[in-house]
Design brief:
Elements lengths: L1 H22 L1 H67 L1 H5 L2 H14 L3 E7 L5 E4 L13 H6 L5 E2 L3 E2 L5 E11 L2 E11 L1 H8 L2 E2 L3 E6 L5 E3 L3 H5 L10 H5 L4 E7 L2 E10 L4 E8 H4 L1 H28 L4 H15 L14 H61 L6 H27 L9 E4 H18 L2 E6 L6 E4 L1 H17 L5 E9 L1 H4 L7 E8 L27 H11 L3 E6 L5 E8 L3
Parallel strand pairs: 14-16
Antiparallel strand pairs: 1-2, 1-6, 3-5, 4-5, 5-6, 7-8, 8-9, 8-12, 10-11, 11-12, 13-15, 16-17, 17-19, 18-19
Helix pairs in contact: 2-10, 2-11, 2-12, 11-12, 12-13, 14-15, 15-17
Length: 604
């Protein structure tokens, strides 16, 4: 019954429109003008409104996310400092060999030098506190405490965040003290986290935005509203908690006390904590609301003006409208560098100028987003450099201290001094290698192209790694093409690429295996799958393979599956190969090995 009524209404409406158009041609022209001129402008304007809203929202999200990332890095660096100090103490041979009184002086000196430590103490194998900086805790039994029964097994221990009697946050770190791979004791440091409050309290976004830190259990560690911290307020019911627990970052919308809130969140991965930057949604997106009103007013004025001019200038304005429509379509397709030009002196010129200003504004927003992305990359880069260089610096410092004592000992043999000098030299070379690799990712490779024999480069790499292959029970098999492949290559950089790939294969075959190195003319060209003329080099190993979901990430900077890797090897290799105008691909089946395929241009 309802469908019959709708059909009847549609027929009546169609008949009335036809009768209206038949009465006067001017009406038809006006309606045609509205259809051909005003409606496209309206549609394009709404598209631009949507595009602008998305751009602004993305910018706000990226800005708050960058603030959260910076806070996360700050918290990580804050906790890594005492961890590094405790690691250095625990790994020092002297702390095992010291007398109790000397140990006590040592840990008291460390606590006095670093205010971040509330107390430091050493447990023996039975869990008794033999040395402590806290008066009254001598010979205290910690055998039932988690710092003892976790660290005594050789593992690091990080406690949950707890609060001191003064209501300041603190946590404990326990590290095993080893002698000849045997745990001889436990070094425990209690860290004062009140500086984290200062760090997060200094973050303010607009008038209502702030940052807070929540623990792995969902309890507030730091919050501008201190009673919420002291009452151990729990945030597990908030929509961002599960994402943080899974190590994800992103944004979330929710309501609290009838106020709509917008939050961006970033995990502090080392401790399963989470940084949340929260802001009132109305304030965060105030710019979007104002822009929507402005664009709506602008579109309304444009429409009224177009209808007014339609009565006398329908034919004159046809061409400018087409120009506007084409420009708007170009913007909608993403070409914001396009500018609308109308060769007339009337209101339509103003309309075109306003669209151009909107496009310029959108371009500016996009540039700001790209700048934020570059800043994020620099932040990750700085964090990684700081982390990677600190370890060799600590090792150099320890060995210099040992060497200083040996120099003052006249009966110390020279070869013993030379041993520590060699260690220091090795760490310096390691730092130089790290800096060289990091610099390589900041600029395209500068290729020194000379006529080189590809097989000779491969052979030199294989001969260099032959000893290591034998020690790992790995067979390196050559399957070279009968043809000679001479071309314009950068000898040293290709050698670096091939060596990194083969070493990765060794790492994937802990129990031995086989690496096959093949060279051939590009077989994909013969099969019609590619027009690329060139040489193909294949490295086929029988290792553990790579999971399918991770294949797309292996060429990303800082991505690595190795504990000691920097995640730069394959990323730099990709830069070098692409610098040769070639391409590098990886095929792998988890558990069945990996094949790395390099295709280089060759005019032979």
């Amino acid at each position: 019954m309802n469908s019959l009524r709708i059909g009847t209404y549609l027929k009546i409406s169609k008949r009335n429109i036809r009768r209206y158009l038949e009465r006067k041609i001017q009406r038809r022209l006006i309606l045609n003008f509205v259809g051909l001129g005003v409606l496209p402008i309206l549609i394009a304007s709404f598209l631009l409104i949507g595009l602008t809203e998305n751009t602004v929202q993305t910018y706000i999200f990226e800005r708050n996310l960058e603030i959260a990332r910076g806070a996360s890095n700050g918290v990580s660096l804050f906790v890594k400092e005492p961890l590094t100090i405790l690691n250095t103490m625990a790994q020092s041979r002297d702390i095992i060999e010291m007398e109790r009184f000397t140990q006590s002086r040592y840990i008291n000196k460390i606590q006095n030098s670093y205010s971040i430590f509330r107390k430091i103490y050493i447990l023996d194998r039975s869990g008794i506190s033999v040395v402590t900086t806290s008066f009254g805790e001598e010979l205290k039994n910690f055998q039932r405490e988690p710092e003892y029964y976790v660290a005594i097994t050789g593992n690091e221990y990080f406690s949950n965040v707890n609060f001191t009697p003064s209501n300041f946050p603190a946590m404990s770190i326990a590290l095993p003290i080893r002698r000849y791979n045997t745990v001889e004791g436990i070094l425990v440091g209690e860290i004062d986290l009140k500086n984290i409050w200062t760090l997060l309290d200094s973050i303010q976004v607009g008038k209502t935005g702030f940052a807070m830190l929540i623990s792995a259990e969902g309890n507030a560690i730091a919050h501008p509203d201190k009673p919420r911290v002291l009452s151990r307020e729990n945030f597990t019911q908030y929509p961002f908690f599960n994402a943080l627990r899974n190590g994800e970052e992103g944004m979330s919308f929710y309501a609290e006390n009838d106020v709509n809130l917008f939050a961006t969140y970033v995990p502090v991965r080392e401790f399963s904590w989470g940084i949340v930057v929260q802001q009132n949604e109305d304030e965060a997106f105030e710019l979007v609301r104002k822009m929507r009103i402005q664009v709506t007013i602008f579109v309304s004025i444009t429409t009224i003006l177009a209808l007014f001019l339609a009565f006398g200038t329908i034919r004159r304005i046809t061409q400018p409208i087409e120009t506007l429509v084409k420009g708007v379509r170009t913007y909608a397709e993403g070409d914001l560098s396009h500018r609308i030009k109308i060769e007339r002196q009337d209101e339509l010129v103003v309309l075109g100028d306003e669209f151009n200003k909107m496009a310029e504004s959108l371009e500016k927003n996009q540039r700001q987003l790209r700048r934020m992305e570059r800043l994020a990359a620099i932040s990750r880069f700085a964090s990684l450099v700081s982390h990677e260089i600190r370890n060799p610096l600590n090792a150099m410092n320890i060995n210099l201290q040992i060497l200083r004592r040996l120099i003052s000992q006249t009966d110390s043999p020279p070869e013993k001094k030379m041993k520590y000098l060699n260690i220091i030299t090795s760490e310096i070379n390691r730092m130089n290698s790290l800096v060289t690799n990091f610099l390589a990712i900041t600029r395209p490779p500068e290729l020194n192209l000379i006529r080189s024999d590809l097989h000779q480069i491969l052979e030199e790499v294989i001969l260099t790694l032959e000893g290591q292959a034998k020690s790992l029970a790995v067979e390196v098999k050559r399957e070279y093409s009968d043809r000679s492949f001479y071309g314009m290559f950068d000898y040293n950089q290709l050698k670096q690429v091939f060596q990194n790939i083969i070493l990765n294969s060794f790492d994937a075959m802990k129990d031995g295996g086989q690496v096959i190195v093949q060279t051939m003319l590009n077989p994909d060209r013969k099969k019609g799958k590619s027009d690329f003329k060139g040489i193909q080099i294949r490295f086929i190993d029988s290792g553990v393979g790579i999971p399918k979901q991770k294949l797309s990430e292996i060429f990303e900077f800082y991505y690595t599956t190795k504990r000691t890797g920097t995640g730069l090897g394959l990323a730099i290799a990709k830069q070098i190969i692409e610098g040769h105008k070639g391409k590098i691909e990886v095929e792998s089946i988890e558990g069945s090995g990996t094949t790395v395929i390099i295709t280089l241009p060759w005019e032979g």
